[in-house]
Amino acid sequence: MTETVTPLVTSPERDDVPMGDFIHVVAARKWTIMLIMVILTVAATASVYRKPTPYVSDASVLISTGAQTTVQAQQSMNTEKALAKSRAVAARVADRLHLRASPESLLAGLSADVLLDTQVLDLTYSAAESGRAKRLAQGFADAYVAYRGELVDRVVASYGTLDARISELRDELSRAQTDAAGASDPAAAAAARERASGVSSELILLEQRRDGLFATAPVNAVVVERASEPKKTGRALTRTVVLALVAGFALGVAVAYALEARALRRRRMHGGVEGTVSDGVVWRR
Prior knowledge:
- Helices cover 60% and strands 16% of the residues.
- It is of the alpha+beta class and 285 residues long.
- Strands 2, 3, 4, 5 and 6 form a 5-stranded antiparallel sheet that branches. Strands 1-8-7 form a 3-stranded antiparallel sheet, with no helix packed on it.
- It starts with 5 loop residues before the first strand and ends with a strand.
């Protein structure tokens, strides 16, 4: 029998397993992958059930705005949403309910949303205890309405102050114009006109400021739905299980590749690779 020796120059050997062997690796290590998937899924499910399910309660506030367009109304409602979740409102909640908690910790359980195509602000509070959830949902609704009322009162007060100052400036402008018209001395007439110009500029500025006070400011805010009876939120079990299975499969495949790579190195060390490797030449019969 004639033996044919064919020298075959090989590329440097790799210690890892080619990605093209994915199906082979998964099939060979299927039990390892399944075990990891089961472990992660059980652990994730246990964590979901171990975590206490919070209670939620919500209250609704109707906001009347002076907005003239849809864009202005949307901007105004976004402003009110941010205002309801402000530290100033949370501080009033703590004060009204005699709580020692910080405003930041109270805000952690609050969410605020504007109901679609409405001027209704929905305030939802989440807490581990049902009574606390309802109490704070109503507390935030009441504190927001009270704080909004304070802001409107400030606007009204500012409006009155500006209106009074505008009346004074109009009288002063009228006197300056009269003085400028009746002055016989050119220097006095010039001084009166200069005074009238300064008063007129201030008058225009204050009138613009006054007219802009109620341009987008809410006129009224009232609680239309008091805090609802608390109810438990559903557990996100399905989503958690799906994510755990996906993560378990990915981790299992990574472990399977690592095990296959280690097995490949061992076979090479013990001469288990096809043919005999020597000085970069594989000899096949």
